[in-house]
Specification:
10 helices; Tetracycline Repressor, domain 2; about 220 residues; Arc Repressor Mutant, subunit A; single chain; 2 domains
Length: about 220
């Protein structure tokens, strides 16, 4: 009986160890994939290219994902995690420094200019994900809902402070900002001279409430 119990325990430990190794390998794949797409672009980042970067065959790579579409979906999810580390507040000091909605949002948009392959991947999958059966459908629905909720909350605070026009409700404003940012990415891919951040910044200017002297504060 003791031998059997030890055997079951050992098997459980082995399974947990195998699972942990699988999770670690999956994370390595996603991190390497981000680098490959940033370097080679979306079209140049084939499954083979990503597999070579982590020392796996294509079949070995897809062992960790149900399909190529799921792989690319998880790459976008990983990008969001990385961006959160760089652009979301992690401490009270950073929270104070990054409390400016306008500047934080524009920083993310400017960063996107440096990773055109990821912008291409995001735009391509966002169209394909309109199909409810696509692996990226749930990702985009959840991401968009979360982004708009956070943005709407911040905009509502600025409206309450009298810094932003209250003629449009914050939920609608959040959707407008998202639509403008997504649309500017498409324009930028067609014409790299387009300044995405400057256009979104102009939208902030247009919505900022004038002060009594006629000047405008930056919407934070």
């Amino acid at each position: 009986m003791k031998i059997k119990c030890r055997s079951v325990y050992a098997e459980g430990v082995a399974q947990r160890g195998s699972y942990a190794k699988g999770v670690a390998k999956r994370e390595e794949i996603l991190e390497r994939a981000l680098a490959v797409i940033a370097r080679e672009g979306y079209r140049g980042a084939s499954v083979k290219e990503i597999a070579d970067a982590v020392g796996l065959s294509q079949a070995g790579l897809l062992h960790y994902f149900d399909s190529k579409e799921e792989l690319f979906t998880e790459i976008l999810r990983k990008r969001d995690e990385v961006d959160m580390v760089h652009y979301a507040p992690l401490s009270p000091e950073e929270k104070e420094e990054r409390a400016d909605l306008r500047h934080g949002y524009l920083d993310v948009i400017r960063h996107n200019r440096d990773v055109p392959g990821l912008v291409q991947l995001f735009s391509r999958l966002s169209v394909d994900a309109a199909d409810p059966q696509h692996p990226a459908h749930k990702y985009f629905i959840e991401r968009n809902d979360t982004l708009r909720a956070v943005f709407a909350h911040a905009l509502a605070q600025r409206q309450s402070a009298g810094e932003l026009t209250a003629r449009v409700d914050p939920e609608t404003l959040a959707r407008i900002f998202q639509a403008v940012a997504d649309g500017m990415q498409i324009q930028w891919m067609l014409d790299p001279d387009v300044d995405m951040a400057a256009t979104v910044d102009a939208l902030f200017d247009a919505l900022t409430t004038p002060k009594k002297d006629g000047t405008r504060d930056a919407a934070s």
